[in-house]
Each structure stands twice: as structure tokens, then as C-alpha cells.
Amino acid sequence: xxxxxxxxxAGPRLRVHRYVMETASIIPFLAMGLSQAVAQPVGASxxxxxxxxxxxxxxxxxxxxxxxxxxxxxxxxxxxxxxxQFNQPNASAITLNRVIGSNLSTxxxxxxxxxxxxxxxxxxxLFGNNAxxxxxxxxxxxxxxxxxxxxxxxxxxxxGRGEIVNNGKISxxxxxxxxxxxxxxxNRGLITANAGHVVLGGTxxxxxxxxxxxxxxxxxxxxxxxGSVTNSGTIQAQVGKVLMTxxxxxxxxxxxxxxxxxxxxxxxxxxxxxxxxxxxxGAATNAGTLDASGKGAxxxxxxxxxxxxxxxxxxxxxxxxxxxxxxxxxxxxxxxxGTGSERHAQSATIGKAVIKAxxxxxxxxxxxxxxxxxxxIFAGSISAEGGATGGNGGQVET
Length: 398
Hints:
The chain is mostly beta strands. Helix content is 10%, strand content 42%.
């Protein structure tokens, strides 16, 4: 009798232990299934142009036969290990990808294209550490563009909100462009567009103009939000142009551009590069390196402009427009004696920084201007020397 009672009590314990073991054995399979699920774009609807979308494993393929196509997506994210491949008729072809769902686009895999890829998501775009984007050109924005305007070549964007962040590697083909435009834009990764353009635009309204696959202009409009652009990564546009610009809402002077990273637009084959930080009525600060030099034999330096109502070059920062055969132009806060079309700063602060516009071997020094309609604080070093084997000094104004 006593033994029977013991068995009755022991029975449930055995059953409970077996249930726990069975449940535990299921968990690894669930985890395995979750780890194998790779985010890919979903809910594609081609609303203009000719394009077909197909999925094969972790790869999404877009075959486009028209020069322009518009695809609305419910979600456009690319997980680590996933790839989106755009096959387009030529380098100037554009695929406009618009997200109509509520999720931001998280790109942590690969996007490849021989033409232009435009990604429009009002919820924001995040290029993760594993993101690898290799395309003819890229435009990522939180603003929208009317279908008919796109098809007729009127690229007037508006209504942007949210943020675009790059922690990965984005590369455009030679001569192509990379445009990241939203009220808040942050680059912590690597962006490359040699012989092309890189634009980081802190605004909700802007217009772009293209000639084929070449960006002709990027212009900000009247903004309803305060914009900011931050670069702590690396931007490379050899013989190209880099523009970092932001605008504030009407009556608000808080637009901010802050560079703590490396921006390079160096000279090659006698073609100069250009770097522009333009904060409009806001503040532009360089605490990193702006390099538009031309160190190759016979090359000259390019152009660097740091413009805004308030401009600052922080301790340890560098602006280099030196060239082997002649220095280039560095303008901080305005042009020589306040002339030219450049915006005048109301205040300028130069810390223990270095600004160089030297001719290295033979040639004349370049031009360096630090301008402000108001107070100017200067604690740095400026040089615009002639070449070591001949040449005159350049022009310096503070």
C-alpha cells in the first residue's frame, strides 16, 4: 500500500521531466529556423515601366527592361547574407523603389546594380555594418516624389522625415553618385564615388538634376524641419565633388553640419576635386580632415569651402588643398574680402588646426580665406607657400 502511494507520487514527476526535456529539444530547432530566416524585400508591385521581380533563395532579382521603373514595396530590407540584384538596360537606367509599409529599411546585406537605384522610405533607412552596396548610383531618401514627375524627369522631392544612417560600405561606379537625403543624415561607414558626386543632404525638400547617370545639381528647398548632417566615417570622391549641406526650418537657426571623419576629393589627371560644407543659416564644423589636394606629379590642389552663419575648424582638424604644381582654394566663412557668391559667416572660430594651400614642388601657393562679418577667433596655422624649386607664395586673408 505504501509502495503504491510512492509510485503514484513519483509518476507525475517523471511525466513533468519528460515534458521539459521534449520542450527543450524543440527550442534549438526553433532558434535554427529563426537564424535561417533572412530579411528580403517583400510585397513588390510594379506600377510603372517594365520590370520583373523574382526571388531565388536569399537573392531577390529585379530584371528591368525600360529605362525607368517604379516598384512599390511593402517592405524593403536586406538581411545579412541576402542580396538584391538589379539588372538594368544601361548605366543611366533608374529603378525607383518606394516603401509603402510602416517599417524602416534595414540594409545589412548586398545591393548590386549596373544602373541607378533609388530607395524612398519615409520611415528611414539604415545601412548596417555588413551592408555592401555596389551600384551605378544610389539615391536614398525619406522624401517622396510623384510618379509622373519621376517619369517626366522632374525630380522634386518633398515631405521627408526620419533619418538615414550609413554604417556600411556604399560604392558608385566611376562617374556615378551617392545621395543620402533626409532631415537627419549620418555617415559612419565608407562612401565612394570616384569622378562622381557624394551628397549628404539634411533637408526634407530638394531637387536633383541628372544628365544620364551624371549628377548635374542638388538643390535644397524651403525646409519645414531642421536638418543635420554628421560624418564620422570616410567619404572618397577622387576628382569628384562632395557636398554636405543642411537647412533649418524658417525662423530656426539650428541646422548643423559636423565632420569628424575623412573627406577626400583629391586631384588626378589634372582634374580637381571639390568639397563643400554648406550649413546655410546654421553652423558648419570641421573637426576631421578635408582633403582636396593634388600630390601627384604636375597636379594642383582643388577647392574646399566651409560655409554657414557660424563656421568652426576645431583643434587638430586639417584642410589640405596643396598641390605638386600649385595650391588650390580654401574658403572658410566666405571669399576674399567678402566678395563672390559664397555666404558670409557671422562668426568664425579656427582652433589649433592646419589649413594648407602650398605648392609642393614647383608652382604658386593657393588661396586661403577665413572670413566673418562678425568676430573671428584664430589659433591655427595657415600656409600658401610657393614650390620648393620655384614659385610665389599665395593669398591669405583672415
